[in-house]
Write a structure and sequence with these properties.
The protein is an alpha/beta fold and 300 residues long. The chain folds into 2 domains: 215 residues, Alpha-Beta Barrel (TIM Barrel); 36 residues, no CATH class. It is built from 13 helices and 8 strands. It has an 8-stranded parallel beta barrel with strand order 1-2-3-4-5-6-7-8, surrounded by 7 helices. The structure holds 3-methyl-2-oxobutanoic acid (KIV). 3-methyl-2-oxobutanoic acid (KIV) binds next to β6.
Amino acid sequence: MKQPLTITKLKKMKQSGEPISVLTAYDYPSAKLAEEAGIDVILVGDSLGNVVLGYDTTIPVTLNDMVYHSRAVARGAANTFIVTDLPFMTYRLGQETTLRNAARLLQEGYAHAVKLEGGAEIAGEVAACVRAGIPVMGHIGLTPQSVHQLGGYKVQGKLEQEAKKLIEDAKALEEAGAFAIVLELVTEPLAEAISSQLSIPTIGIGAGRGCDGQVLVYHDILQYASPYREKRFVKTYADIGTTVRTAIGAYVSDVKSRAFPQEEHAFPMEQEVIRQLYGGNSAEEGRNSPLESEKEAGFQ
Ligand code: KIV
């Protein structure tokens, strides 16, 4: 049986040039399908705030939300390496708080690792987690938890000073012991430069072709009612949204026209019981015995 990857294997994949595939998942079915499709790593991203819970930003997402979804993902993908996001302000309040909250994601959310947004300023917290035996994935560039500080969802590192800062941040995270770093919405040449200067893998989203792996959001690649599917960096692999909408529309129309349910969807009753209820012959007589019908329907 397939075993989850380890952080050692992920680093080896960088060394051997094998690209790392990462996809977000937020519940049992999305995790199960991602695992069956052979994904290397599942990220239980706090993007669940946007694509599952319908918030405008990831800021309202709580630690309890992350634990709840991470647990469901772990049930669906027991053989896949799972990284779960520490949401807004569950770190940066001191190492003890960070450790306590990261521990919950592993103990209660069954994650193998946690992800934190930020650069050199959170290196101390990253190092504390690593010292405590909690693997950490970093996340720099566009960090959605800081969207208001950044002034919107914009490409990062376009200017020299910004680019230099991102390179320093990546190195600080590596030094603190992070096993990988997400680079979100940074220019392709900068992502390439960062990737070549680190010994740990970079996982890009909107960061071009030079990263060691790629991550995308489940609902985006499947066009599953995602508000972000039109983004330049997203590639659509299926249009589940249209399929689901069409199927639900057909169900609504069947209910309205009484085309559903049909006889095969209904449960018959024993003739004897019907006779006892109403007396005399029943219109049901002549059909399969209830027992046979139920066996056919898979209920016995
Ligand atoms: O929350 C998330 O899904 C993420 C990815 C976009 C990297 O952090």
